[in-house]
Amino acid sequence: EKVSLADGLPLYKDSVLSGTFQKSELRMGDILRVAYDEDGDAEYVSLDTDGIDGPYMAQNGTWQSRFPINSTTVIMRDSQKVTASEIQTHDILYYSEALNMILAYTDKVTGIYKNASPSKNAPTTVNVSGTSYTIESVEAFHKLAAGGTFAFGDTVTLLLGREGGVADVLSPEDTGDIVGFVTGTGTEAFETALGESYSAYSLTLTRP
Question: Against a cut of 0.85, is the pTM above it?
């Protein structure tokens, strides 16, 4: 059934009033419920985000054992229906039990890990090459936090999830992708989680 909804209706997320409905904020796999008044007009909408399992980075062809999928499970990769064999290593995956659907995302960002907020000890957002990204998973948190895999000044590849946040992190060499062409070099100052200053070699890249 096709339903037309206008922006601006009261929006409930997980039973809590959280603003107004905007179609542009919907993501593939969201479950939307519409309440109607006695005249049959939409009164408010409710967005159910529970029951989404993920994010999970696909690796080594073993991702199917991660979710309770079956022969009727629909697989969507970047909004296109695909077969299981088309899921690739490093895709970011989610599973909706209510929809019996796998949601796969392929967006990546490569750049210099410049900063973390509010701190590297407990980051909620990170700055990579001048752009801030919200951390979306425990795996990404551990890799980007103090004592993790990546330090300020490292070149990182962020794997982005369904909300555009950081679902996982790799070294660019691990992805097998061409990062770009070197258009500038130099050194840049950074700080450790303890406030100690150091410098690291940096590159300016232009993507092909």
Answer: no
